[in-house]
Amino acid sequence: MLGAPGAGKGTQARGVAECFGIPHISTGDILREAVAKRLPLGLAAQQEMEAGRLVSDKVVCGLVKERLQRPDAVSGFILDGFPRTLVQARYLDRLLRGRADLLVLNLRVDPELLVKRLTGRRSCPVCGQIYNIYFNPPRQEGRCDRESAKLVYRSDDNEQTIRQRFMAYEHGTKPLIEYYGRRNLLHDFDADGAPETITRQLCECLRKA
After folding, report:
1. Is 37 a catalytic residue?
2. Whether residue 143 lies in the annotated active site
3. What topology is assigned to 2-120+157-208 in CATH?
4. FRET partner for 180 with CA separation of 20 to 30 A, picked from 73, 82, 105, 171?
Protein backbone atom coordinates (compact mmCIF):
# COMPACT_ATOMS: atom_id res chain seq x y z
CA MET A 1 0.00 0.00 0.00
CA LEU A 2 1.62 3.24 -1.20
CA GLY A 3 0.57 6.83 -0.57
CA ALA A 4 1.69 10.02 1.12
CA PRO A 5 1.27 10.46 4.90
CA GLY A 6 -2.46 10.72 5.65
CA ALA A 7 -3.59 9.15 2.36
CA GLY A 8 -5.53 6.51 4.31
CA LYS A 9 -3.13 3.58 4.03
CA GLY A 10 -3.92 2.30 7.51
CA THR A 11 -7.70 2.54 7.12
CA GLN A 12 -7.66 0.90 3.71
CA ALA A 13 -5.17 -1.78 4.70
CA ARG A 14 -7.42 -2.81 7.59
CA GLY A 15 -10.42 -2.96 5.27
CA VAL A 16 -8.61 -5.09 2.70
CA ALA A 17 -7.17 -7.36 5.40
CA GLU A 18 -10.66 -7.98 6.79
CA CYS A 19 -12.05 -8.59 3.31
CA PHE A 20 -9.51 -11.31 2.51
CA GLY A 21 -8.83 -12.69 5.99
CA ILE A 22 -5.13 -11.82 5.93
CA PRO A 23 -3.01 -9.90 8.46
CA HIS A 24 -2.59 -6.15 8.23
CA ILE A 25 1.11 -5.53 8.88
CA SER A 26 1.79 -1.93 9.81
CA THR A 27 5.41 -0.91 10.26
CA GLY A 28 4.17 2.12 12.19
CA ASP A 29 2.48 -0.16 14.75
CA ILE A 30 5.59 -2.34 14.97
CA LEU A 31 7.79 0.67 15.63
CA ARG A 32 5.42 2.23 18.17
CA GLU A 33 5.30 -1.09 20.04
CA ALA A 34 9.09 -1.10 20.17
CA VAL A 35 9.04 2.47 21.48
CA ALA A 36 6.44 1.63 24.15
CA LYS A 37 8.52 -1.32 25.34
CA ARG A 38 11.64 0.88 25.31
CA LEU A 39 13.53 -1.60 23.19
CA PRO A 40 16.87 -0.33 21.79
CA LEU A 41 15.54 -0.16 18.24
CA GLY A 42 12.41 1.57 19.47
CA LEU A 43 14.35 4.27 21.29
CA ALA A 44 16.51 4.85 18.24
CA ALA A 45 13.44 5.11 16.02
CA GLN A 46 11.52 7.44 18.37
CA GLN A 47 13.69 10.47 17.71
CA GLU A 48 13.40 9.96 13.96
CA MET A 49 9.58 9.65 14.00
CA GLU A 50 9.07 12.68 16.24
CA ALA A 51 11.27 14.76 13.92
CA GLY A 52 9.23 13.64 10.92
CA ARG A 53 12.08 11.63 9.42
CA LEU A 54 11.91 8.07 8.16
CA VAL A 55 13.42 5.32 10.30
CA SER A 56 16.55 3.64 8.90
CA ASP A 57 16.11 0.93 6.29
CA LYS A 58 18.11 -1.54 8.40
CA VAL A 59 15.76 -1.26 11.38
CA VAL A 60 12.54 -1.39 9.35
CA CYS A 61 13.65 -4.27 7.11
CA GLY A 62 14.63 -6.37 10.13
CA LEU A 63 11.25 -5.83 11.77
CA VAL A 64 9.34 -6.68 8.58
CA LYS A 65 11.39 -9.83 7.96
CA GLU A 66 10.58 -11.13 11.43
CA ARG A 67 6.88 -10.33 11.04
CA LEU A 68 6.52 -12.07 7.67
CA GLN A 69 7.96 -15.26 9.14
CA ARG A 70 5.02 -15.68 11.52
CA PRO A 71 2.43 -18.39 10.68
CA ASP A 72 -0.50 -16.01 10.06
CA ALA A 73 1.32 -14.44 7.08
CA VAL A 74 1.83 -17.69 5.17
CA SER A 75 -1.32 -17.31 3.05
CA GLY A 76 -0.89 -13.62 2.33
CA PHE A 77 -0.67 -10.24 4.01
CA ILE A 78 -0.97 -6.53 3.32
CA LEU A 79 1.93 -4.22 4.08
CA ASP A 80 1.13 -0.72 5.35
CA GLY A 81 4.11 1.65 5.48
CA PHE A 82 6.60 -0.67 3.80
CA PRO A 83 8.45 -0.34 1.52
CA ARG A 84 9.10 3.39 1.70
CA THR A 85 12.39 3.54 -0.20
CA LEU A 86 13.92 1.81 -3.20
CA VAL A 87 16.33 0.05 -0.84
CA GLN A 88 13.38 -1.39 1.07
CA ALA A 89 11.59 -2.32 -2.17
CA ARG A 90 14.57 -4.29 -3.43
CA TYR A 91 14.88 -5.96 -0.02
CA LEU A 92 11.22 -6.98 -0.21
CA ASP A 93 11.78 -8.42 -3.70
CA ARG A 94 14.53 -10.65 -2.30
CA LEU A 95 12.43 -11.57 0.73
CA LEU A 96 9.46 -12.67 -1.40
CA ARG A 97 11.48 -14.43 -4.11
CA GLY A 98 9.81 -17.75 -4.82
CA ARG A 99 7.09 -17.08 -2.28
CA ALA A 100 4.39 -14.75 -3.63
CA ASP A 101 3.32 -12.34 -6.35
CA LEU A 102 3.32 -8.69 -5.35
CA LEU A 103 0.49 -6.22 -6.01
CA VAL A 104 0.99 -2.54 -5.24
CA LEU A 105 -1.94 -0.23 -4.44
CA ASN A 106 -1.18 3.50 -4.71
CA LEU A 107 -3.55 5.95 -2.98
CA ARG A 108 -3.56 9.46 -4.50
CA VAL A 109 -4.88 12.40 -2.42
CA ASP A 110 -4.66 16.21 -2.74
CA PRO A 111 -1.72 17.39 -0.52
CA GLU A 112 -3.65 20.16 1.26
CA LEU A 113 -6.42 17.73 2.12
CA LEU A 114 -3.77 15.45 3.60
CA VAL A 115 -2.61 18.17 6.00
CA LYS A 116 -6.13 18.52 7.38
CA ARG A 117 -6.56 14.77 7.60
CA LEU A 118 -3.41 14.42 9.68
CA THR A 119 -3.74 17.41 11.99
CA GLY A 120 -7.30 16.28 12.78
CA ARG A 121 -6.44 12.65 13.34
CA ARG A 122 -7.22 11.03 16.71
CA SER A 123 -7.08 7.35 17.69
CA CYS A 124 -8.36 5.08 20.47
CA PRO A 125 -5.55 3.61 22.59
CA VAL A 126 -7.73 0.57 23.40
CA CYS A 127 -9.20 -0.66 20.09
CA GLY A 128 -7.13 1.34 17.60
CA GLN A 129 -10.14 2.99 15.92
CA ILE A 130 -9.11 6.14 14.03
CA TYR A 131 -11.20 9.34 13.94
CA ASN A 132 -10.80 12.79 12.41
CA ILE A 133 -12.19 15.85 14.17
CA TYR A 134 -12.96 17.46 10.78
CA PHE A 135 -14.27 14.58 8.68
CA ASN A 136 -15.12 11.66 11.01
CA PRO A 137 -15.55 12.92 14.59
CA PRO A 138 -16.64 10.63 17.44
CA ARG A 139 -20.19 10.99 18.76
CA GLN A 140 -18.83 12.12 22.13
CA GLU A 141 -16.12 14.74 21.80
CA GLY A 142 -12.69 13.30 22.57
CA ARG A 143 -14.00 9.79 23.35
CA CYS A 144 -14.04 6.54 21.38
CA ASP A 145 -17.50 5.40 20.29
CA ARG A 146 -16.67 1.76 21.07
CA GLU A 147 -14.60 1.91 24.26
CA SER A 148 -15.38 5.40 25.63
CA ALA A 149 -11.62 5.74 26.08
CA LYS A 150 -10.02 9.16 25.72
CA LEU A 151 -8.70 9.61 22.19
CA VAL A 152 -5.00 10.30 21.74
CA TYR A 153 -3.12 12.64 19.40
CA ARG A 154 0.16 11.52 17.86
CA SER A 155 2.99 13.90 18.68
CA ASP A 156 4.14 13.88 15.04
CA ASP A 157 0.69 14.97 13.76
CA ASN A 158 1.47 18.69 13.80
CA GLU A 159 1.68 20.81 10.65
CA GLN A 160 5.43 21.49 10.76
CA THR A 161 6.30 17.82 11.20
CA ILE A 162 3.74 16.83 8.58
CA ARG A 163 5.33 19.14 6.01
CA GLN A 164 8.69 17.54 6.77
CA ARG A 165 7.17 14.10 6.30
CA PHE A 166 5.81 15.15 2.89
CA MET A 167 9.31 16.24 1.86
CA ALA A 168 10.72 12.90 3.03
CA TYR A 169 7.99 11.11 1.09
CA GLU A 170 8.72 13.04 -2.10
CA HIS A 171 12.42 12.25 -1.79
CA GLY A 172 12.33 8.61 -0.76
CA THR A 173 8.96 7.03 -1.47
CA LYS A 174 7.53 8.60 -4.61
CA PRO A 175 10.20 6.92 -6.80
CA LEU A 176 8.56 3.63 -5.85
CA ILE A 177 5.63 4.58 -8.06
CA GLU A 178 7.96 4.58 -11.06
CA TYR A 179 9.75 1.44 -9.84
CA TYR A 180 6.58 -0.63 -9.60
CA GLY A 181 4.94 1.06 -12.57
CA ARG A 182 7.71 -0.09 -14.89
CA ARG A 183 7.04 -3.66 -13.76
CA ASN A 184 3.25 -3.39 -14.26
CA LEU A 185 2.62 -4.09 -10.58
CA LEU A 186 1.10 -0.71 -9.72
CA HIS A 187 -2.64 0.04 -9.39
CA ASP A 188 -3.57 3.74 -8.89
CA PHE A 189 -6.64 4.82 -6.90
CA ASP A 190 -8.16 8.26 -6.27
CA ALA A 191 -8.42 8.29 -2.47
CA ASP A 192 -10.18 11.65 -2.01
CA GLY A 193 -13.58 9.98 -1.63
CA ALA A 194 -15.45 8.12 1.12
CA PRO A 195 -13.28 5.45 2.82
CA GLU A 196 -15.86 2.67 2.37
CA THR A 197 -16.08 3.38 -1.38
CA ILE A 198 -12.30 3.23 -1.73
CA THR A 199 -12.15 -0.05 0.23
CA ARG A 200 -14.71 -1.59 -2.10
CA GLN A 201 -12.72 -0.49 -5.15
CA LEU A 202 -9.50 -1.91 -3.73
CA CYS A 203 -11.09 -5.27 -2.93
CA GLU A 204 -12.64 -5.48 -6.39
CA CYS A 205 -9.25 -4.79 -7.97
CA LEU A 206 -7.57 -7.49 -5.89
CA ARG A 207 -10.26 -10.06 -6.66
CA LYS A 208 -9.76 -9.50 -10.38
CA ALA A 209 -5.99 -9.68 -10.00
Report:
1. no
2. no
3. Rossmann fold (3.40.50)
4. 73
